[in-house]
Write a structure and sequence with these properties.
The structure is a single chain. The protein is built from four helices and five strands; from the N terminus they run E-H-H-E-E-E-E-H-H. The longest helix is centred in the last third of the chain and has 14 residues, at 97-110. By secondary structure, the chain is of the alpha+beta class. It has a three-stranded antiparallel beta sheet. A two-stranded antiparallel sheet has the order 4-5. It has helices at residues 14-19, 23-33, 97-110, 120-123, and strands at residues 3-9, 40-47, 53-68, 71-78, 81-89. The chain folds into two domains: 3-89, no CATH class; 92-125. The N and C termini lie far apart (46 Å).
């Protein structure tokens, strides 16, 4: 039980994330802040030995959405951003083809569409 959160991490910022002692705390506050309904960017910083900021990656990660573990969120990720396509209560297993198709059907139905399998004739190309 509990909640699940979707976070995008920009791989280009991994070195700065690894060395930022405050990144975990910043990610924590971003996830808590998701209750406002907006995505939240999480910076990563590098520090000089005296503690001053040497460099910063303003969007090293983004907290995208948070939902109850009993729900399923469908998220599209690309271009360093994410969009929530849908969220619904789903009790099945979505790790196999049958579960994925069931989720796709539910998502399509919410958008006013239905999923129809291509005919065998069309699949021969």
């Amino acid at each position: 039980m509990g909640f699940n959160t979707t976070v995008i991490v920009l791989n280009d910022a991994l070195d700065m994330i690894k060395n930022d002692p405050k990144f975990g705390e910043n990610l924590y506050y971003a996830i808590i802040g998701l209750a406002r309904g907006e995505q939240i960017d999480v910076p990563a910083r590098s520090y000089a030995p005296d503690g001053t900021i040497r460099g910063s990656y303003g969007c090293a990660a983004t907290a995208v959405e948070s939902h109850h573990a009993d729900d399923t969120a469908v998220i599209a990720v690309g271009g360093n951003c994410a969009s929530e396509l849908g969220r619904f209560y789903y009790t099945g297993y979505h790790g196999d083809d049958e579960g994925k198709l069931d989720i796709l059907r539910q998502l399509a139905a919410r958008m006013g569409y239905r999923i129809v399998k291509n005919s065998a004739k069309r699949n021969r190309r």
